[in-house]
Design a protein that fits this description.
Layout (H helix, E strand, L loop, with lengths): L1 H23 L7 H22 L7 H5 L3 H36 L11 H31 L1
């Protein structure tokens, strides 16, 4: 997933640069704003599970270091459970929303691309993210029981 996200990021850069050059020459790329928006959405959604897995999110380390290892584990479990619930609901509602968009036949404004596909992919990414959160909770509980 991170490779697809990275490819979307590179695609955004390439498309934006090409569009800017095209605009300077009087020939902009039709629908480039839509495509860049789709790629930006996909790059964030694809990167989220990997970033969580490698603990790449921003944290308050100064405050965190004063807690004991047991307290850190308990806070990790509590925030993990809250995150699990939140992102589980987000994944479910995104899938429902994508289904609604598909049934209504909603498409993008200029290129008339089906937007529900992007929302389905995002729902899948959030499902993977939820599974990774669940895996981290289980691992934290195992580590807590060892100490």
């Amino acid at each position: 997933m991170k490779i697809i996200g990275a490819a979307c990021l590179v695609g955004m850069m390439f498309l934006t640069c090409t569009d800017v050059i095209g605009r300077l020459m009087g020939h902009p790329i039709f629908g480039s704003v839509e495509l860049v928006g789709f790629m930006a959405t996909l790059s964030v959604a694809m990167a989220l599970p990997y970033t969580h897995q490698v603990k790449g999110h921003i944290g308050v380390e100064i405050l965190w270091q004063i807690f004991s290892k047991r307290m850190q584990a308990l806070v990790d479990i509590c925030t993990g459970l809250l995150s699990l619930g939140l992102f589980g609901i987000v994944a479910w509602r995104m899938a429902v929303y994508a289904d609604t968009m598909q049934k209504s036949g909603e498409v993008s404004m200029n290129l008339e691309l089906p937007e529900h596909v992007i929302v389905y992919v995002m729902a899948f990414c959030f499902i993977v993210f939820t599974l990774i959160i669940f895996q981290n909770i289980i691992q934290t509980i195992k580590n807590l029981n060892k100490t």
